[in-house]
Amino acid sequence: MQPLADRMRPTKLSEVAGQRHLLGENGLLVRILESGVLPNMVFYGPPGIGKTTVADILARHAGKTLVRINATTAGSDDIRKAISQTGTLMAPDGVLLYIDEIQYFNKKQQQTLLECTEKGDVTLISSTTENPYFYIYPAILSRSTVFEFKPLTPDEILPIVTRAFSFVEQEGMEPLELEEGVAEHIAASCGGDVRKAINAVELLTLTCREKATLEEARLVTQQSAVRYDRDGDSHFDVMSAFQKSMRGSDADAAIHYLARLLEGGDMLSACRRLLVTAAEDVGLAYPQILPIVKACCDMARELGLPEARIPLADAVILVATAPKSNAGNVAIDKALADLRATGGGELPAHLRDAHYKGAKTLGRGETYLYPHDFEGHWTPQQYLPDALKDAHYYTPGENKTEQAAAAYWRKIKEGR
């Protein structure tokens, strides 16, 4: 028997849940369907949110023969075989070639698709769970329109869960009493994946007798809401959100993204991004944070999970709530830009190494002024090369630590 998700698959765009930005009253895919002309398209989004269903509906309404290929198992020969159906009795009105998980095709396999998409008798719809701009050959992208499908909200999934329980009853299953909160829990715990929600319903109807409890619903949906792939697109999205939340001083959001990383088993990435953020976004506003965060990360690596979550949580909250300064980051980037543009120039002779025989003959270090011989341990002296002698890279942040240091040196230097 087909899985429940396939048995109750929608046959009209209006029946597809979610994706209102594409399938709403004036959605772009609705207008494309009404036009009767299908362009080449790329459907991008996580699994279980309707990409294949929409492709099926578009093919049926366009009168084209749908040929579905899964790139995880297919090859170039499968592509050629599908294309060869065009103009035959099997596909008199053309072929809609649907390639699922196209990111698994290599460059050569993707290039095989180019000729058929340009002729017009084959319409290509590709789907991918990874960012198409990273994984799909540019020539394919230039001939296609990219549509992003988004995870559904619990409110959008709840009616589907309710309908799924009714659907199995209509098929002849014994009615199943649901403990309060079962449907809501499934809708909220599937991570926006409709297929996961329906699969949970099917498992409950097959394993429960008379009544499905909330505890049983928790068992069939455990960890299903977590969407994280250490090697995939979501990895970089979560890492970006993690750092931006700490930089933005939102401790709650930062802890949430730390939880995602740890739940995905990616503690090392969390440690690395913590160390970077402590230096890049807090830095000179609270210099003590650097050894503190380093100690927390070292402790986490030594403890391992699950205990590692505690020092890492401490470090994340500290970074998020600390005063912020990117003055060091800005300064080094400016210095690097000047260095790459000018080559830096020769070092001033008085700063060069003078600890060898013959240094004086070369004029090395002769006019160097030793700061500790002067009041305040400072004296005016050129330190930058002549080519950059007027360059200015560091501007103190507005936090009290950097302002205190700036005031100290202003007093010393102006006193001269």
If you had to describe this structure to a student in words, what would you say it looks like?
With 416 residues, this protein is α/β, with parallel strands linked by helices. Helices cover 50% and strands 7% of the residues. The protein contains 19 helices and seven strands. The chain has helices at 4-7, 20-23, 28-35, 51-62, 76-83, 107-119, 132-135, 138-142, 154-170, 182-188, 194-207, 214-221, 233-247, 251-263, 267-282, 289-303, 309-321, 327-342, 400-414, and strands at 41-44, 65-70, 95-100, 122-128, 145-148, 177-178, 211-212. The strands form two sheets. The protein has a five-stranded parallel β-sheet, sandwiched between helices. The protein has a two-stranded parallel ribbon with strand order 6-7. α5 (76-83) runs parallel beside α6 (107-119). The longest helix has 17 residues, at 154-170. It is elongated. It starts with a helix and ends with a helix.
Provide the β-strand percentage band.
5-15%
Largest pleated sheet: 5 strands, parallel
User: Pairing-aware structural class of the strands and helices?
Assistant: alpha/beta
| Percent of residues in helices | 40-55%
The largest beta-sheet arranges its strands as 2-3-4-1-5
Average pLDDT taken over every residue: 86
Low-confidence stretches: none
Total count of strands = 7
Radius of gyration: 31 Å
Helical region count? 19
Distance between the first and last residues' Cα: 90 Å
Q: Could you say which overall geometry the principal axes of the C-alpha atoms support?
A: elongated
